[in-house]
Amino acid sequence: MTARTVSNRAICLMGPTASGKTDIAISLCKRFPLDVISVDSALVYRGMDIGTAKPDTETLRRTPHRLIDIRDPEESYSAGDFVRDARAEMRSILAAGRTPLLVGGTMMYFRALTQGIAELPSADDEIRASIDAQAAELGWPAVHAKLREVDPAAAARINPNDSQRIQRALEVYQVSGRPLTEWQDAAAIEAQGDGVQFTKMALRIEPRSVLHERIGRRLEHMLENGFLDEMRRLMQRPGLRRESPSMRSVGYRQFWAYLADESSLGDATAQALAATRQLAKRQITWLRSESSLKCFDSLDSLAIDAISAYLASQLS
Fold it and tell me: Of 60, 133, 202, 223, which is most buried, counting CB atoms within 10 Å of its CB?
C-alpha cells in the first residue's frame, strides 16, 4: 500500500510502554513513505540499550530511527532540546518528499512539539521556599486548591499530589503575574507557525492486567539478556552519577541501588516493575487528555490494517 504524502503532515504514534509501538511503526514504514523519529527521553542515550528496549542494530539498519543514540549518558537532554532536534529532522524528511512518523512514549515531548514549549520565567528560590512552606503546613492538596484559584485550567491538568508541577505552576504565576496556562497558550500559537499538521494516533491494550503482564515479561527479558551487565558498564563511567538525568529512567535507578548493595535483586526487580507500571499509568492519563487522538487496540489481529486505512485517509 502506498499513499501520496502531504507536504506539511507529520504522524504521531503514541502509547504506553510495552504497547507494541516499534513493531507497528516498522510495519507502517513498509506500507507508506515514512521516516521514523524517536520520541523517547531514554533512547537518546548511547549505551542504554537493554534497559530501554532500544531496537536492535538490524532493526535500526532496516528502519532507521532518528534521535536515537545522540547523547552520552552523562549529558542532559530536555524537552526544548527535543523540539529543536525533532523540528530539524521533520524539515529534512518533508524536504525529501516523505512523511515524519514520530514514535514513542515520552508524552511531554509530544506535547511540547505539537503544542509548543513556553519560555517560562526563571526559577525563584524565595518563592519556591514559600510554596514549600505552605505545603508543609497545609499539604499539597491545599496548595493545589490555591492554584485552582489563579489558574483553573492548570489545576485541572495537575494531580493534587503532584508537588513538582503544582509548585512550578504557582511559581510562574507569582513571578510573572500570568497563569502558566496563558504562557502555554502563547507557545501553542507559536508552534502553529511552522505549518506542520499533526495526525495523532495511540495504541492501547485492555484490560490493564494484560499490559501489566507484557511489562513483566519485558523486564524478565531485559534481565535475561544482560541488563545488569549493561548497568555495571554504565556505573564504571567516571562522569556518570545516579543523579544524572539518564539514570532517572525507570529500571536504571532501581538496579543502580541493587548494584550499589543498597537493595536485594528481588526488591530492585519488584521496584522496577512497580515503577514501570506507574509510568504506563501516567502515559495513559496523558493520552486521555490529548485532543483529536485516534486510538487502536494493538493486540487486535487486524490492528495494522485498521491503522493503515486510517493513515491512508490522512495522507491522501
Answer: 202
The amino acid that residue 8 corresponds to is N
Find all residues with CB under 8 Å of 124, minimum gap 6, and list them. Answer: 171, 174, 175
Give the pairing type, strands 9-14 and 99-104.
parallel
Give the chain's count of helices (H) and strands (E): 14, 6
Q: Which domains does the chain have, with CATH numbers?
A: 9-117+190-315 (3.40.50.300), 125-187 (1.10.20.140)
Residue 148 backbone class (left: φ over 0; alpha: ψ -120 to 50; beta: rest): alpha
Name the strand (E) or helix (H) holding 68.
none
The grid cell for 267 is: 526488591
Residue 243, phi then psi, degrees to nearest 5 = -80, -10
Strand partners, 295: 202
Question: Per-residue pLDDT tens for 37-47?
Answer: 999 999 999 99
Sign of CA dihedral 192, 69, 27, 222: negative
- pLDDT, position 297: 96
Which three cell numbers mark 20? 507494541
